[in-house]
Specification:
With 427 residues, this protein is an all-alpha fold. It has one domain. The protein is built from 20 helices and no strands. The chain has helices at residues 2-14, 19-34, 43-51, 58-71, 74-86, 93-108, 111-129, 133-144, 154-163, 167-195, 208-233, 239-256, 262-296, 298-308, 313-328, 333-350, 355-370, 377-385, 391-414, 417-426. The longest helix has 35 residues, at 262-296. It starts with a helix and ends with a helix. One of its GO terms (molecular function) is transmembrane transporter activity. Part of the tripartite ATP-independent periplasmic (TRAP) transport system. Belongs to the TRAP transporter large permease family.
């Protein structure tokens, strides 16, 4: 059955069938060939139960928040401000890519939206200033992955929903690893551009007065982050309510900068509908597939297989890491989460690991999947914003950052407190 599901998944994805539809088709296939009773009769119940949680309302709000910031021009102002502060480092404007992605990750909750935002704003600058296209575009793709780690994160909301774990605790746990990855990306960029200066283009130093004025354009994003995350941790709002507050804050910021118009609102709402519909289709399809797989006994088969290996807890978690790395090459990130969590997480908890800690480890591995071919979504998003070159350049440029994420995954395994210290301290 595992072979059927894996082969069927790869074959259907190769036909460019939407991921959500692929999950439904695989579920019907498992029902047809591996069960003795018609599970598909429960489809209506499954669709309702997997989409009726109030927690999921946060998803369209966070998507809308990012859409408003992008389409109102706030992203362009933020990028220009960070350019004036970090372009003196070895690598120049490449650091602005990572820094801008980090700031927008703290508001948008989506990696693809973050990568698309920064790519749209940054690519014209790369071509004008003569930057190496590989490292420049790779930094954008990698920086965009921070959108699902730094709170608020749509993927962490989905993980908390599926595992019935605390979303505020997950947000806290993701903060230090997320900021740590951002600093590591900056360090890797500086090291590479020190060894090979031609990769980084010209370093630029701006007048102090201009740098001070640029801070004005950073203040709204910082206030918005404090508003969203602070309201959750102070107990003033749930993640869903905080997302709604964030949308209101984003609209006020856009209004203050003169970026609100009927066209902007229309495009923001349409973009939100498209992205949210895609996410919900994947969640519902994966829930149906998980139901059929569980009924057909896949969970028991996989559990027996892993237990039969006789691994220690650390050996077990290393196998899980390997599974996610391999699956990440072929499966879209949200689908990978929703399909594997009901099977993998119970086994991880049985080995004595913390559910919050594993959520952060999984997100790091999911981040890697966003910049590894052939299904790395951020690679295609960044390539789509370029006017020349090929996808191989983006892949090559993202490789150093992918290795950095792998190092972070091993650091989390060796030192779990990287993720668990902040939730424990604030509790």
């Amino acid at each position: 059955m595992i072979t059927y599901v894996s082969a069927g998944l790869l074959a259907l994805l190769a036909l460019s069938i939407p991921v959500g539809i692929v999950l439904f088709l695989l579920g019907f296939g498992v029902d047809q060939f591996y069960t003795n009773f018609p599970l598909s009769r429960a489809l209506g119940n499954m669709v309702w139960s997997s989409s009726s949680s109030a927690t999921l309302i946060a998803i369209p709000f966070f998507v809308l928040l990012g859409e408003v910031l992008v389409r109102s021009g706030v992203a362009t102002r933020t990028y220009a401000a960070l350019d004036s502060w970090v372009s003196w480092l070895p690598g120049g404007l490449v650091h602005a890519n990572v820094a801008t992605a980090t700031m927008f990750s703290a508001t948008s909750g989506s990696s693809v939206a973050t990568a698309a935002t920064v790519a749209t704003v940054a690519m014209p600058q790369a071509e004008k200033l003569g930057y190496d296209p590989k490292l420049f575009s790779g930094a954008i793709a990698a920086g965009g992955t921070l959108g699902i780690m730094i709170p608020p994160s749509i993927n962490l909301i989905v993980y908390g929903f599926l595992t019935q774990s605390s979303i505020p605790q997950l947000f806290l746990a993701g903060l230090i690893p997320g900021l740590g990855l951002a600093l590591a990306f900056l360090a890797v960029t500086a090291i590479l551009c020190t060894i090979w200066p031609e990769l980084g283009g010209h370093r630029r130093v701006f007048p102090l007065l201009q740098m001070a004025r640029a801070l004005i354009d950073l203040i709204p994003i910082l206030i918005l982050f404090a508003l969203i995350v602070g309201s959750i941790y102070r107990g003033w709002a749930t993640p869903t309510e905080a997302a709604a507050v964030g949308v209101a804050g984003a609209l006020l910021i856009a209004l203050a900068f003169g970026g609100v118009s009927w066209t902007m609102m229309r495009e923001s709402l349409l973009g939100t509908i498209k992205v949210t519909s895609m996410i919900m289709l994947i969640i519902i399809g994966a829930s149906f597939l998980n139901f059929t797989l569980s009924s057909a006994g896949l969970g028991r088969e996989l559990t027996a297989f892993l237990e039969g290996l006789g691994l220690s807890p650390i050996g077990f978690i290393m196998v899980v890491v390997l599974i996610y790395i391999v699956l990440g090459f072929f499966i879209e990130t949200l689908s990978l989460m929703v399909v594997t969590i009901p099977i993998i997480v119970p086994m991880v908890l049985a080995q004595g690991y913390d559910v919050i800690w594993f959520g952060i480890l999984m997100i790091v591995l999911i981040e890697m999947a966003l910049i590894t071919p052939p299904v790395g979504l951020n690679l295609y998003v960044v390539q789509g914003a370029r006017k020349s070159g090929n996808l191989n350049e983006v892949m090559l440029g993202a490789l150093p950052y992918c290795l950095t994420m792998l190092a972070m995954a091993f650091a989390l395994i060796a030192f779990p407190d990287i993720a668990l210290w902040l939730p424990s301290a604030l509790n």
